[in-house]
Amino acid sequence: MSNSVVHVFTSITSNYIPKARVLAASVKRVSPSTVFHLMLCDTPPADFNLADEPFDSLLDLQSLGVPELKQWVFGHTVVELCTAVKGFAFRTLLARGAQKVFYFDPDMVVFDRLDELIGRLDAHSILLTPHQSEPEQTLEAIADNEIASLKHGVFNLGFLGVRNSAEGRRFVDWWAARLHHFCIDDIPGGLFTDQRWVDLAPCFFDDLRVMRDAGFNVATWNLTNRRVTGTLAGGIRVNDEPLGFYHFSGFDSGAQETMLNKYGSADPTLFEMRAWYIGECEKNGQAALGRLPAVYSNFDDGTPITRAQRRLYRIRVDLQRAFPDPFDTRAGGGYKAWFAANAGEADGAQQIVLRGDVRYMQTLSDFLAFTENRLRQSPRARPLKALGLAAVRVMRAVSRRLAG
Question: What number is the average pLDDT over the span 96-101?
Fold first, then answer.
């Protein structure tokens, strides 16, 4: 590992290599001595040669020390996986001696002010940027931006800075542990990959700074309160301060263009930046690499893995034991064949989850036992007590049938 104090990484699958190249080149342009690591949650393309890349090192899943790796990977969609590894990657780089580590999403570009971020880690162990730093003024913007932050997370984890201090390591250990078990996209359940967890960080960690500077993590979700001016050649400013880094989030889905037209139409600089970014991605192989399938998107026979298949495997310890390599379809079809026979896409995963989730069934069993005990001790009238006990017996019989 390099002796450089400052390290930067991003986390991707191979189809995002063009964007990661643009990001890495931007980091090297403003801070040539910074070490850039590519966290690749995939197999590299056939012609990938690290010596020809703007990356200084390649981190792979095997280097992170995640136990039962194939089982863990299978339980995540591609987006969940690329975010779930971030805590482990931070921990790995800090353990190797990096003094200051920054994460940037691959669809970001650093334009300036990296030295400011480096300096701020002298004073604080953790740096965060919120999605919004000023209140919205219209109902439409509140719905688009503030309510979206309440669902997805107050802080945008496309950026994170951590210093190798006791507090920084304590934060990374906590975050990595949460991402190990709970990095899923489940907004109704209160989770959105890695982001919602960090809403709790200011409650748990004192040595933390929330950076509200207009020039950091500029994106369509905060353009209502950030005026972007200038040119790429002459310099770009945001609310009269230099642009630090810009987030081209939602580029591939088309959301970036839609929201840019909605909230950035008065700033021609933003459209110059967008056109430049498209060109840079094309120069770096977007046409050739942008549609590469991720290796962990499919079973080993090429069949795409569904979200239902991932979710069921993730929560069923018995299935993890029965199929230690859930990607493998060679021996009797493996987990893929079991799922087709026992769950079926038409039935949906919900019923099979209820039928076999050991933790849920144990919780239900404990609850019924507690309820029965309380009813037997209750001074209530006998008919009500008998009715309650009968209900418990029915629920227990149903739970046994679901447990199969």
Answer: 97
- Residues 310-351: pLDDT tens digits? 999 998 899 999 999 999 999 899 999 999 998 754 344 444
Q: 329: which residues sit within 8 A by CB, 6+ positions away?
A: 299, 300, 301, 303, 336, 337
β-pair partners for 37: 9, 57
The mean pLDDT value for 139-167 works out to 96
What's the token pair of residue 67? 């136990």
Q: Which two tokens stand for residue 390?
A: 């009968």
How far is Cα 238 from Cα 216, in angstroms, rounded to an integer? Answer: 9
**160 and 212, same domain (yes or no):** yes
Q: Which domain does 166 fall in, by range?
A: 6-289
CB 192 within 8 A of CB 198: no
**CATH code: domain of residue 273:** 3.90.550.10
Question: Structurally, how many domains does the chain consist of?
Answer: 3
Task: Kindly state the helix (H) or strand (E) to which residue 335 belongs, with its residue range.
Answer: helix 334-342
SS3 241: strand
Residue 1: DSSP 8-state: -
Question: Cβ(204)–Cβ(134) under 8 Å?
Answer: no
Instruction: Report pLDDT for 365.
Output: 54
What pTM, to 2 d.p., does this model score? 0.85
Q: Do residues 238 and 330 share a domain?
A: no
CA distances from 86 to 158, 172, 217 (A): 10, 9, 18
The DSSP output letter for 146 is I
Q: Write 313-321 long-range contacts (CB < 8 A, 24+).
A: 313/71, 313/74, 313/75, 314/74, 314/75, 314/76, 314/184, 315/353, 315/357, 315/359, 315/360, 316/356, 316/357, 316/358, 317/358, 318/356, 318/358, 319/356, 320/68, 320/71
Residue 363: φ, ψ to 5°: -60, -45
